[in-house]
Structure formats: structure tokens, C-alpha cells
């Protein structure tokens, strides 16, 4: 089926470290790709998106590039902060589809 | 102002009971959703309504019945609760079904069935 796979968590980093959270998707059709973030005790929020190959989504210092050749949409940030501690979800929406399909989530903890 | 609100925030109940979770959005959106997030944080869509009409109904037991009295509300009623229903339930909304990627989530309702 059409799925999204994220790297297993939890991920623990020190403040100002470089972050990568891997996300790959099954190569079916031409999905749009998204990263959502869930801060402790809250619902999910859209972080960034990319709707076609080679698009780069960016927000709050986070970036992800839609790479069709590797079917990936890895999330990166150059220097993380304690406030970035959250669960991050990769998601896809297939053309014409009416729903998002989420990955399993990756918990990120940033230590001061 | 809260965009998507859910009540209650916490719900503890016994097996076999019937309970409801309410959701309201004040964004003027046409489409609303219910998701279930299990203990491993895996998030899965259950239902979606567009203009009060059911458009997505995933393989959810028929003990779960959504009800949309108007566009701003999507309530979730659960009959004969089971231990496996324990989870966090999130309501969400989007402008319309074409904007399904940009969903606004409520804070969640943590349901514990004992």
C-alpha cells in the first residue's frame, strides 16, 4: 500500500546539534509530502510541506527536500533548541486522495 | 481563541460503558476528522466529514459512531468500550477536502478504559 516510514526513535541530542530525521515513502504515484510536529500535550501542527519532486519545504529553521530518486523527505535542522523537543510525523497525501497517511512518529528530545 | 477544541481532555471509564467525545472548530472549515493515536504514537485516521457528510470511514468497529450536527461540530460516540480503545483521540479540521493536507488539530482526548 501507500505508506510512510520514519526512523525509529527516540532521538536525543544536545542543544545546537545538527538534526536529521529520516522519512521514506513507497513510490506509488506522485504524493505530496509533509512534516507535522506534536509538542507535549498538544495536537499536531503542520511544520512544512513539498508538493512535487525537488521542492524544498522550510519553516522555523527546519528543512526537507522532496527527493524522488531516493523516495525520501528527510527533516533537517542545523542547530536544534530545547524547544524543538517534540514528536515529528512525516505524512503523505496521494493525488486525488482525501486523507493524510502518517508515519509512526519520531520522538525528539533536546538536552540543554 | 481556541481553533479546534475537544471535551473532555481526559476520560477514564470502565469496559462496557458508552461515552462521547465532543469536537468543535471555530475556523469556518468544511471538513473535520477523527484520529486515534495509540500508545506508540502511531496516528491513524478514523473518520472524515465534509459539510456534515461522511466521506472517509476507515476500518473502525461499528461501536464507533461519529455524528456531525453541523459543520462546526463532529462528535464521536463509542459504545461498549473495550480495553483496546484506550488511546488519545484527536479531532482535526481543514478548510475543505481539497486542503486536507493542512489540518488543524485539537489538543486531544486521552481515553483510558479500565
Describe the structure.
Chain A has 112 residues and is mainly β. Chain A is 0% helix and 48% strand. Chain A is built from no helices and twelve strands. Chain A has strands spanning 4-6, 11-14, 19-21, 23-25, 32-38, 44-50, 56-59, 62-65, 75-77, 86-93, 101-102, 106-111. In chain A, the strands form three sheets. In chain A, strands 2, 5, 6, 10, 11 and 12 form a six-stranded mixed beta sheet that branches. A four-stranded antiparallel beta sheet of chain A has the order 3-9-8-7, with no helix packed on it. Chain A has a two-stranded antiparallel sheet with strand order 1-4. In chain A, strand 5 (32-38) and strand 6 form a beta hairpin. Chain A starts with a strand and ends with a strand. With 114 residues, chain B is mainly β. Chain B is 0% helix and 55% strand. Chain B is built from no helices and eleven strands. Chain B has strands at 4-7, 10-13, 19-25, 31-37, 43-50, 53-57, 64-70, 73-78, 87-94, 104-105, 109-113. In chain B, strands 2, 4, 5, 6, 9, 10 and 11 form a seven-stranded mixed beta sheet that branches. In chain B, strands 1-3-8-7 form a four-stranded antiparallel beta sheet, with no helix packed on it. The N and C termini of chain B lie far apart (34 Å). Chain A binds chain B through residues 32, 34, 41-46, 49, 87, 89, 91, 93, 97-100, 102, 104-105, 107, and chain B through 4, 33, 40-45, 48, 55-56, 90, 92, 97, 100-108.
Amino acid at each position: 500500500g501507500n505508506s510512510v516510514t520514519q526512523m525509529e526513535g527516540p532521538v536525543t541530542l544536545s542543544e545546537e546539534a545538527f538534526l536529521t530525521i529520516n522519512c521514506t515513502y513507497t513510490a506509488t504515484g506522485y504524493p505530496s509530502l509533509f512534516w507535522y510536529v506534536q509538542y507535549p500535550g498538544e495536537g499536531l501542527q503542520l511544520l512544512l510541506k513539498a508538493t512535487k519532486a525537488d521542492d524544498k519545504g522550510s519553516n522555523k529553521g527546519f528543512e526537507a527536500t522532496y527527493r524522488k530518486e531516493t523516495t525520501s523527505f528527510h527533516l533537517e535542522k542545523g542547530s536544534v533548541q530545547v524547544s524543538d523537543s517534540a514528536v515529528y510525523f512525516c505524512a503523505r497525501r496521494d493525488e486525488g486522495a482525501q486523507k493524510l497517511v502518517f508515519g509512526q512518529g519520531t520522538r525528539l528530545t533536546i538536552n540543554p | 481563541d481556541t481553533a479546534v477544541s475537544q471535551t473532555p481532555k481526559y476520560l477514564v471509564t470502565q469496559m462496557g460503558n458508552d461515552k462521547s467525545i465532543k469536537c468543535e472548530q471555530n475556523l469556518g472549515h468544511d471538513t473535520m476528522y477523527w484520529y486515534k493515536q495509540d500508545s506508540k504514537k502511531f496516528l491513524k485516521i478514523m473518520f472524515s466529514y465534509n459539510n456534515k457528510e461522511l466521506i472517509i470511514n476507515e476500518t473502525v468497529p461499528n461501536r464507533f459512531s461519529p455524528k456531525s450536527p453541523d459543520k462546526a461540530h463532529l462528535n464521536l460516540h463509542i459504545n461498549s468500550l473495550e480495553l483496546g480503545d484506550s488511546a488519545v483521540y484527536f479531532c482535526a479540521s481543514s478548510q475543505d477536502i481539497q486542503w486536507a493536507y493542512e489540518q488543524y488539530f485539537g489538543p486531544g482526548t486521552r481515553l483510558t478504559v479500565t
